[in-house]
Specification:
Layout (H helix, E strand, L loop, with lengths): L4 E6 L12 E2 L2 H17 L2 E5 L12 E10 L5 E7 L3 H13 L4 E8 L2 E4 L2 E4 L4 E9 L6
Parallel strand pairs: 2-8, 3-9
Antiparallel strand pairs: 1-5, 3-4, 4-5, 6-9, 7-8
């Protein structure tokens, strides 16, 4: 089986609720991410990495896929259409998806911006700038 294109969601970010890292992304910030994807893909490319990094600078050795479109799903989650690239990390990603299925993964935004601490949570500011999406195994929020 060869996987070229797939769609993923970011399930660990629920609009206006703290995630596991105690970050809060408003619906407006998520909508702005979609606009940033549209802009980046209209004049170039938005790359994605396999795994997480604390670096917003994208190294080509980490690139596994490109994002062609983003959207806010009906339930408020961020979703994206992706295409695996023929890179070492892309081949690794394709193998993982073939073994575990695309539903075992999610996208996570990586970017920079201001935060404000409210009740111990870090509220992401409207100035958030998306650098890339990282693809990671899905994790469930503790109940």
């Amino acid at each position: 089986m060869t996987i070229d294109k797939f769609a993923l969601r970011c399930e660990r970010i629920v609009p206006d609720e703290p995630n596991l890292n105690r970050r809060v992304y408003s619906s407006a910030v998520l909508q702005n991410m979609v606009k940033q994807v549209e802009k980046k893909t209209s004049y170039g490319v938005l790359f994605g990495r396999l795994g997480t990094s604390d670096q917003t600078k994208i190294r080509m050795t980490d690139v596994a896929f490109r994002v062609s479109k983003a959207r806010i799903e009906k339930d408020g989650h961020l979703g994206a259409d992706c295409e695996i690239l023929n890179t070492p990390k892309g081949v690794e990603l394709e193998t993982m998806i073939e073994k575990l299925g695309v539903d075992a993964f999610e996208i996570v935004p990586c970017g920079v911006g201001s935060t404000t601490v409210v009740d111990g949570n870090h509220v992401i500011g409207e100035d958030y700038r998306l650098a890339a999406f990282d693809i990671e195994p899905k994790i469930k929020k503790p109940e």
